[in-house]
Write a structure and sequence with these properties.
Chain B: This is Type I-A CRISPR-associated protein Cas5. The complex is a heterodimer of chains A (314) and B (232). Chain A has 314 residues and is of the alpha+beta class. In chain A, 29% of the residues lie in helices and 32% in strands. Chain A is globular and about 55 Å long. The longest helix of chain B has 14 residues. Classes of the chains: A alpha+beta (314), B alpha+beta (232). The structure holds zinc ion. Zinc ion (ZN) binds next to helix 2 and helix 5 of chain A.
Chain lengths: 314, 232
């Protein structure tokens, strides 16, 4: 496999309209949205809307699931149904395993058996095991840019024929007409994510790849495509009734051809694009030009950069 | 003499206190010495070094932290996957809601390592290792190394241990942070080895004074600040 890229990071500002991706819980008929306290660029405390990194990872995993089915990548029984227990829900697979203490061998079989467990990670617990597969992709929290995000509460009436549609009503009353409030947030969110492409199909215990170069290529491409789709076609909570709209995405993609991770800078910092490039210069002096950066101003520019990088996976 | 690496947090940080149960998600205010050493061992793997050979000197490193100027700890309830009480029947994991704390930092985090007793070869490796780290604690809590230098002394804005003498800040918060014990063995700290890390031998708890004072607090958050660097 001639792929040089070992890791990829994105630092960017995602502009989302009217989303409800981040409900923290319900009080009465009012859904609470997630807010975090931060310190703004002037060092003053402020409170902003935020979406947890786990939510973004869930969206990315769902895209990966779809791509894996389409591309006929190997999937375990759990992942075929997008079950969050993943390979732990595959009883047949565990029958094929030997000694529970042979951790390296367990991991090898997991990597060969399921692309989603390989890429998204899992804690293998069945049969008295406790073997971790660390995910190859991680997302940080999406944190609202102060002054540039707002949350409003919308009044909804739910009718009987809407039963079971995942309305978010948690009062228990699900009959007849039902009044509830649902928050919707809009604005600019700072995002950071990283993918360890060099670990696709890699057994961290045996320190070797457990799938063929051809399969690594396919999985790496599917992983990059799922990341691309996460920012182009979001899925997530309440999307039946309140589909989140991504209005814009701007930022910077960084890649590393060495073992140093592709760098990130928090986009809450107004000059993050310049910062990334300064860091790139410094790292490239130490690590022989391992870091490349690609700025983008829109979803279409982002799509082009990702498509070019996916094409390079040969 | 200290090797000091400066990091910028690029997302929210969380590192659950070792004494917390799975339903109590209190975070440490800063990374722990143990988590830094684990990250360095992981970096050594990725650099292609023989980690079992590098382990002894990394285990014995003396580590101090200068926390970012401000930290805001957020209380949060998030969806988590947890093992059910009855592990035999039913699914491996069930969804539940757990309490977690996430920290927003303003400013840089500095990690200092005492280098007087290290060989030049180890110092050279250590310098590179720190550039290979992009998180301590919960994955997704990214940070970015930005620079590195050697300092003769650490100022009063760095953490110190209970019982130490010296010129330290008195405006502090005490945290119990884990470190590797001097007798820790590589199999015991390796997550992929079945040998369990024993508290008190492989993993020891230390009382660390972090130079923060609480500025404000409410139901949802607690805000900490430290004195500026340079003053003492
Ligand atoms: Zn699976």
């Amino acid at each position: 496999m001639t792929m040089l890229m070992q890791s990829l990071s994105i630092s960017g500002i995602l502009t989302i309209d009217m989303h409800s991706l981040n409900n923290e819980g319900a009080e009465g008929n009012q859904l609470q949205t997630r807010m975090v306290h931060i310190v703004d660029e002037n060092g003053e405390p402020t409170v902003v809307n935020a979406i947890s990194g786990d939510m973004l990872k869930h969206i990315q995993a769902e895209h990966l699931h779809g791509l894996a089915l389409e591309k006929e990548l190997p999937l375990c029984a759990g992942c075929t149904k997008f079950n969050s227990n993943r390979i732990n829900a595959d009883a047949e697979f565990f029958k094929s395993l030997g000694d529970k203490n042979a951790i390296g061998d367990t991991l090898k079989k997991v990597l060969q058996h399921c692309a989603v467990d390989d890429l998204e990670g899992v804690l293998i617990t069945q049969g008295g095991r406790s073997t971790p597969r660390k995910s190859t992709v991680e997302f940080g929290w999406l944190v609202g840019v102060p002054e540039k995000t707002r949350t409003e509460s919308y009044f909804h009436v739910k009718f009987d024929n809407n039963r079971g549609q995942g309305s978010g009503d948690e009062s228990g009353a699900n009959l007849g007409q039902n009044i509830f409030y649902r928050p919707a947030s809009s604005g600019e969110y700072a995002l950071v994510m990283n993918a360890e492409l060099s670990r696709v199909g890699f057994n961290d215990v045996e320190r070797e790849y457990q799938i063929t170069d051809e399969d690594r290529k396919k999985r790496t491409r599917a992983l990059l495509e799922s990341i691309l789709l996460t920012f182009i076609r979001p899925l997530g909570a309440h999307r039946n009734t309140q589909f989140p709209h991504i209005v814009n995405f701007q930022g910077i993609v960084t890649t590393s051809t060495a073992a140093i991770p592709a760098p990130t800078v928090s986009p809450l910092n107004g000059s993050y694009l310049d910062e990334v490039q300064k860091i790139q210069e410094n790292l490239n002096r130490l690590f022989s030009d391992a870091i490349t950066t690609y700025k983008f101003e829109s979803q279409s520019e982002f799509t082009k950069i990702m498509a070019d990088l996916i094409e390079q996976v040969r | 003499m200290w090797l000091v690496t400066t990091y910028q947090h690029t997302s929210l940080f969380s590192l659950r206190n070792s004494s917390a149960t799975s339903s109590g998600g209190k975070t440490n205010l800063i990374p722990t010495m143990y988590s830094v050493k684990m990250a360095l061992l992981d970096a050594a793997f990725r650099m292609g070094l023989d980690v079992s050979l590098e382990f002894p000197w990394i285990r014995d490193l003396e580590i101090r932290f200068e926390p970012p100027e401000q930290a805001v700890v957020n209380n949060s309830f998030i969806k988590i996957l947890t093992e059910p009480k009855d592990k035999k029947a039913g699914p491996a994991f069930i969804t539940s809601v757990g309490f977690r704390e996430f920290v927003f930092y303003d400013g840089t985090l500095k990690i200092a390592v005492k280098i007087e007793n290290l060989t030049q070869n180890h110092i050279d490796k250590l310098k590179l290792l720190f550039f290979h780290v992009n998180y301590f604690g919960k994955r997704g809590g990214f940070l970015q190394p930005i620079c590195q230098g050697i300092q003769e002394y650490l100022g009063s804005t760095f953490s110190y241990f209970l019982g130490e003498n010296g010129k330290f800040s008195s405006d502090v918060i005490m945290q119990y942070l884990d470190d590797m014990g001097p007798k820790a063995t590589f199999p015991s700290i390796n997550t992929f080895d079945d040998t369990a890390a024993r508290i008190g031998r492989d993993r020891i708890m230390k009382s660390v004074f972090v130079p923060y004072h609480q500025v404000a607090s409410s139901r949802g958050y607690t805000w900490f600040k430290r004195e500026s660097s340079g003053s003492s």
